[in-house]
Structures are given as structure tokens and as C-alpha cells.
Amino acid sequence: MTTTPRPSLPPSKEAAAARAGHRGVLFSMCLALVLVVASVSALNLALPDLAVDLSATNASLTWIADAYTVALAALVLPLGAIGDRIGRRHVLVAGTVVFGAASLAASFSDTTAHLIVWRIVMGVGAAMIMPGTLSTITAAFPAEQRAKGVAVWSGFAAAGAIIGMLAAGALLEQFSWRSIFVASAITALVAGAAAAALAPNTKDPHPHRPDVIGATCTAVAIGCLVFAIVEGNEQGWTEPAVIAALAVTIVGFAAYAFFGLRNDQPLLDPHLFGIPGFRAGAVTVLVQFMAVFGFFFVGLQYLQLILGYSPLKAAVALVPVAVVVLPTSHVTPHLVTRLGMKAVMVAGLTLLSSGLFAISRIHADSGYLPFLGGLVLCGLGIGLTGAAGTAAITGSLGRGQQGVASAMNDTTREVGSAIGIALMGSVYGSHYRDALPASIDQLPPQAAHSVRDSAAAGLQVAQHAGAQGPALAQAVKDAFISGLSASLVVVAVIVLAAAIGCLFRAPHQAPNAGGPLPRSA
Fold it and tell me: If you ran DSSP here, which 8-state letter would residue 177 be given?
């Protein structure tokens, strides 16, 4: 691969960016980013309604939430490469069309299978949109303003989840879960129009040839990994389908590394992981998003099912995360300059792990304040790790490789989100079922089946159980808390392990910020 940076924004495109203005570029790209990120989190508010309306089990709810993220994670690299070749704005605008059409179709779903399929198509559209957001900013902004642009982008990448949940909560106060998809379709139309009007069509003037093998290997490996996590907890880790999925995952990633090391123009050069700053940034971003979106999946159900919050109130209860994340992301570049990249990433991951562990200690009668304390810690950690991790990835590569940097940043975010939802959803589901008392078997078969399927269905059964209702509701809530605590502890340990890894392996600063990409490190 080449060792010198290439201009990713020709003079004519520099003029286009100047006419649009950096604020216009930033606005249009952040709007498109929020559309993608909000769609990961917004539907979490509707999970209790989906469990009842579509008779969705815990496993089905996990797939409804994760199908979108898996498709996005699996395809963001190859579709980002296509954007580098034909123009990032062109692919982004086309992605908003796919996304909007799939969102509208999803609003008419009447089974979990139909909804999962349309969520996958939405993920394809999102994979067309997301790579162009960061790479357009880094290509269009001058070097002295790029760090600020990346920091704003990173802040909206984290806060976009809260924005999506607030919008979904407001819609669910008046309408059904279907309104979330209608609103997403409308937002996609607006985002596409803004990108077409305000963003330059940046691209790599010397694009690499397509890496079909690399794209196939990574897509298959990511999909099989999530399948194994979900179904392993649901069916058992010794089931042939789960073992086969894990085997394909290992073979897929091994094949990616094998062929990538022998390809002079790979989709994502495995040599990049030899760059300490790049590697540390990728790990930091991955575990951060694994924790964040896995937490949203189970945490929102706690607010609605255990505390009895309405969808909007539950969304508002998570606003403190955004209130903390945005200013923290803004000051993170200054902290990195003064304290070093390693110190900021280790501190951020430690705070995030501490917040998750604090929330895992709550019980059915804890109320909101202990939950809020953990949220504040998580928010501080997210703000530090998101901005520092993204800056480590982009700063480790030259300007001509910002498409690669953006694609890697997007991939780690979405792979982390997909794994987090699958892991926490699966751990929660298995511990929830195991914690239900044996007395559940004394219920009518259909009622007992509903209780085991999901906590939302179990609480609905308790409402119609007469004198047994209060005891059944308490049993369901206690089982839910057991699942919630177990899933949070698992992820908190993983985040803490990443912090320890960064402490010993991450460089003080990204070693190659803004310079040419080294052959290997």
C-alpha cells in the first residue's frame, strides 16, 4: 500500500466546501449521523409494546434491536469503500432513500419476522450513510479545525442515541410503535436533502480496487458472531448451530487477516492494527459502544417495567448522559493535549466501567437516584472515550487515509453496538428465565409461557392473575433485576479489562497524527 498521503478533496471540491461553509458541512453530516445512531436506540423504548403487540420473546426482541446494527456493522466497511470510489455524498444520499423506504415499510409490519427483515434493510441504508459523515468532515475541514470537527461529530454520535430516544418517547406518548418508523422515514428525507445541498462530494482521487474477499469475510464473521452470542444464551452453547457459527466466525476473521496481509490494496489493511494508537483507539471505541447500546437495551426496560415510567419519561431519565457527554467530548481534545491520549482513554474506560457496576447494584425498590449516579459516571466515561478513541484512530493515519480511518471508526462503533446488544440481551434473557420461581409452572401453560418469554408479558399476565397478581409481579421484577445485574457486571468487567489493556499497551499520544501512514508498526 502507498506510504504517502493523497489529497481526498480536490481543489474544485475545496471550493464547494468553502461555498457551503464548514458549519453547513458539519450540520448536514451530524444530522445524517444522528439519523443512523438514533435508529439503534429509539426502538428500545418500544420493546415492552412489541413484546405484547407482536408476542415477541426476549430472543426476538434482541434480534429486532440487533438486526439493524448487525447489517450496519457488517456492511459499513465495503459500502464506505464504494463511497471513497464514486463519491461519499452520492452514496450517503442514496442511503437515505434506502433507509427511508425501509423505515416506512417497517411501520406496516405485523410479525416479528417482517420487522426483523425491514430492520436489516434499514441497516443496509445506514451502512451507506454513516461512512460518509466522518470522512467528509475530516476531508473538508482544514487540519487546524479537524480536531474540533471530530469532537463535535463524536459528541453527536453519543448524544444521538439520547436524541432518538427522546423523539421516540414523545411519539409513543400519543401513537403506537409504528410512528417511530414513520418519523425515521421523514427524517431520512430531510437528511438526504441537507447532505445534497450543503456537503461536498468528497472521494479518493486514486481509489483502490474492490476487495470482495475482505468484505465477504468480515461481513460473514460479524453476522455469525452475533448469531452465536444470541442463540448460545437462548439454545445453549453446545448446540450444533451455535458451534458452527462460532467456527465460521473464527474462520472468517482468520481468512480476512490471511488474505488482507497478502493484498496490496485490502479493504482494511491488517497492518493497521500494528499501529499502537490505531489499535488502542479501535478497542476503546468498540468496548464503549458495546457498553452504551447494550445498556440502553436493558436499562430502558428497567425504567419502564420496574419504575413504571412512560416512554417519554424513560427517555428523559437518560438525558443526563447527553448533558454530561457533550461538554466532556468538547474538552477532551484539550485534555489529550495536556495529559496524553493514554491517560484520557484509561480514565474514560474506568469511569464507564464504574458507572455500569454501580447501576448493577440496584434492586427493584432502588428508585431513580442510584440509577442516576451510575448514569453520570457513564456519561463522563463516554465523553472521554468517544472523542479520544476517535481522535486516536483518525490521528494515526494521514489525510489521504481518512476514508479508511472513518470506516474503521464506524465499524468498531457498530460492531461494538451489535455485540453489546447481543451480549447484554442474551445474558439478561438467560438470567431472567433462570431466576423465575418454580411456582410459575403452576400457572396455565399459555400464561407461564408468556411470563418466561419476557418481563413485559409477565407483568401483563400478573395484572390479570387476581389474588396471585402482586406476588407474580414481584417475582417477575426480581427476575428482571437478576438479569439486568448479571448483564451489566459482564460488560463492566470487559470495559475494565480494556482500560487495563490501554494502560499497559496504548501509546502516550497517537504516534503518527496527521502524517503519512506507515507500512507497519
Answer: T
Residue 336 near residue 388 (C-beta atoms within 8 A) = yes
For the beta carbon of residue 308, count every other beta carbon within 10 angstroms: 10
**What DSSP element (H or E) covers 81?**
helix 58-86
Stated as kind and residue range, the H or E segment containing 92 is: helix 88-106
**Integer Cα distance of 417 and 296 in angstroms:** 10
In this structure, which amino acid lies at residue 314?
A
The three grid cell numbers given for residue 164, joined into one nine-digit string: 432518538
Q: Is residue 496 within 8 Å of residue 348, measured between CB atoms? A: no
Helix axes 469-505, 402-435, angle to 10 degrees: 140
Map residue 433 onto helix, strand or coil: helix
Q: How far is 202 from 141, CA to CA, in rounded Å? A: 11
Whether 326 contacts 34, CB under 8 Å: no
pLDDT of 241 > 50? The answer is: yes
Distance separating alpha carbons of residues 137 and 406, to the nearest angstrom: 10
- Whether residue 314 contacts residue 300, with contact meaning beta carbons closer than 8 Å, is answered with yes
Reply yes or no on whether the pLDDT at 16 is more than 50. no
Cβ distance 228 to 179 under 8 Å? no
Q: Would you tell me how many other CB atoms lie within 10 Å of the CB of residue 463?
A: 10
Phi-psi region of 514 (alpha: psi -120 to 50; beta: other; left: phi over 0): left
Q: What is the pLDDT of residue 403?
A: 60
The CA-atom distances, in angstroms, between 480 and each of 32, 37, 290, 433, 455 are 35, 27, 21, 9, 7
Cell of 299: 436499562
- The structure's pTM equals 0.79
- In whole angstroms, what is the distance from residue 154 CA to residue 134 CA? 9
Helix (H, G, I), strand (E, B) or coil at 187: helix
CA atoms of 5 and 515, how far apart (whole Å): 8
pLDDT tens, 273-285?
Answer: 888 888 888 899 9
CA distance 505 to 521: 13
Q: Is residue 37 within 8 Å of 157, Cβ to Cβ?
A: yes
